[in-house]
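Journal club side-thread
Mid-discussion, someone asked how the predicted structure for our own chain would compare to the paper's figures. Pasting it here so we can look after the session.
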Amino acid sequence: MTETPHPLYDRHAETLTRALTAITERGYWSAYPESPSPRVYGETAAADGRAAFEAYLNGDFPLDQAGDGQTVATEVSPFGVELNVRYPHATVDQLVAAATAALPAWRDAGPQARVGVCLEILDRLHKNVFELANAVQFTSGQAFVMAFQAGGAHALDRALEAIAYAYAEMTRHPGTAGWEKPAGKGDPLRMSKTFHVVPRGVALVIGCNTFPTWNSYPGLFASLATGNPVVVKPHPRAVLPLAITVKYARQVLAEAGFDPNLVQLAPEAADEKLASTLALHPAVKIVDFTGSSEYGDWLEANARQAAVYTEKAGLNTVVIDSTDDFAGMCRNLGFTLALYSGQMCTTSQNLLIPRGGIETDQGHKSFDEVAAGIAAAVGKLTADPARGVEFTGAIVNDGVLERLEEVAKVGEVVLESRTVEHPTFPAAVVRTPTIVKLDATDTATYSREWFGPISFAIATNSTAHSLEILRSTVGEKGALTAGVYATDESVLDAAETAAIEVGVHLSCNLTGGVFVNQSAAFSDFHGSGANAAANSALTDGAYVANRFRIVQSRRHV
């Protein structure tokens, strides 16, 4: 079928071209400004976005989507703010039937039209980014600036990155080709061939509580751009950010002449287990999930009819050998551990330090001095409650609090977690990070994931021993990030070799404004798909290419 260009593709062609260049060059580029400054977004943007967010509270969410007549309201804000947003509920059969009916016209529209519509959805979301950021803040517990950046601008960048990869893969081949083969003395064999991009089917995105947009947007837009209708199943405690996303996506789809049921919201009632039911449905051919290793493993093992993309948990590790900037190393790691109370899948948990200490620009530092230096940096960031809560945010769920109580009993506490009263939201649940001293022999403790503001300073026999521990723990349990501090190039090379062997992204000697737990769209890969922490990467060709197939037809000329 010959593709008919869509005006939305022309409108956003320049953005797409720049994104395609960015994923090839891997340098710095961002399409969506990360600063919430009035100088960037206008004097009234912040107030307008906050008002739009507040208009949703204690009411029925405005979504023109068919359902079973029931509503669900399951969100509890970590900041103690009453949300009570009621979302329309739909049955699995309703969702699947509506998505299936929407697929053919979307498939036949072709890559350019689909990508143009997807880019218009991003543009619409960007115009409402303050509304989105408030929703992320009050459902995830992130402080506002982080919610704006990670939940707004950076999430949109990651979505655009996925769209660019999808377009590149879909257009890698021509839509049509003439084929001519010599046939000896007779006329050559001539055929006309057409190559169709065919979506796999209904896609399911299972959202998470901590980063409802950042972790969901790549899969959502990779599937949508490649022709698959998407059912968005939010985490019960973080529905609003994805409901807003679905609302604007459906508006754009309808305005562009497509069935809005190409994107549907699937909020679940208490104990409904909607994600599992949808994931096993025969019509669901793609599943994207971010969350626990246990559930990710279950999806991989049981959703056999679907292509399953998971980002799970792991043992993010830092090897500390030596440094020529001890203060900078401590500040950098302190920020990493304090940011969002360590509730990031990329936050470092295991800090491997030789028990004999390390060499630094300040002279030899003992193991205890290294641990104390990092602890002091965390303490400085969180000492003033008004300033500290802008780093730590609030605790996302009770499981984090339970782990904080448990970890205080497993080793010597270097830095004690404190309860902090939020100066703006008195009911917010805020805890500062803890650091606990362990020995390399305490494998049972540090080889499990302790999600939250929990890190271990682990005494090893040597840097070589630290690298052995990195290989064994990450090799078995996986990791999304690894770091190393060393002044000797041979140590850096050995760490890089170890990281390659266990498939984890490595950061070396970070002492400034780049942190091991952050990744930049269009340049950094998030997850590698090469260890147990994730079976895919955000974002590469493999992340999008299996969301469609090429089906050809050929005719004699």
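Post-session note: The mean pLDDT is 96.
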